[in-house]
């Protein structure tokens, strides 16, 4: 039986171009205006790199960037560890008493409004401070704990989807040969879900770096993150220095994404070659 020919719509390229235009045109415009010499963001006055110089001389901005990057890296790392453990429990342990409640509580932050999450965590930290004296004050630690709370849910969803797609025959063969479950997990399972681990870490890093609402609730004096500083600056008027900062963030994120994609693509090709070699032998 002959298969039907695939009909390609002539509008597919138009739709693709329009979609990419709405996605990336604002970013391109932001990068262009970061080289604007005028203090007025909407008025073009010629090319200049002075706002990048002003940015690197702004100690408050550099401090906020350093704090946000540190919190985002630590939050993403802890969220990846906890999210991986939670995903393994949901996918590999099957049904157990309280499994539905565990899955519900784990994924609840995905649909919980940030205002509710931030207010709840604020009340929790205040109550803990009164009861046990910890945390004594709100700052970088409380922001990190809050970010780990909601980032773990996103990481768990990404990794659990990858775990459900895995062929368990390699793991079962390793255990039949005498490997312990812990060794099987680190030697076989972790390399196979490595792309999901990297994706989950990058997603958690981005969510933590971008968070404004929750950090505003749980932050204290002297713990201003980058989104909080940018929001406070924008309320008083858009500063061209923000354009320069955003352009550098786009550059760094783009490079990180490109490097991560290259490593994941290389690892996936290596895994496919090993599978074909094993099937051929």
UniProtKB/TrEMBL annotation:
Record-linked SUPFAM superfamilies: MetI-like (SSF161098)
UniProt-annotated location(s): Cell inner membrane; Cell membrane
Lineage: Bacteria, Pseudomonadati, Pseudomonadota, Gammaproteobacteria, Enterobacterales
Swiss-Prot/TrEMBL keywords: Cell inner membrane, Cell membrane, Membrane, Transmembrane, Transmembrane helix, Transport
Record domain ABC transmembrane type-1: where: 65-260
Originating organism: Enterobacillus tribolii
The keyword Zinc appears for this protein: no
Family classification: Belongs to the binding-protein-dependent transport system permease family. CysTW subfamily.
Subunit structure as annotated in this protein's UniProt entry: The complex is composed of two ATP-binding proteins (PotG), two transmembrane proteins (PotH and PotI) and a solute-binding protein (PotF).
Protein name per Swiss-Prot or TrEMBL: Putrescine transport system permease protein PotI
Cross-referenced CDD domains: TM_PBP2
GO biological-process terms attached to the record: transmembrane transport
NCBIfam families, per database record: PRK10592.1
Stretches that traverse the bilayer: 12-35, 60-91, 103-132, 144-163, 184-206, 244-264
PROSITE patterns with a match to the protein in the record: ABC_TM1
InterPro entries: Bact_Polyamine_Transport (IPR051789), MetI-like (IPR000515), MetI-like_sf (IPR035906)
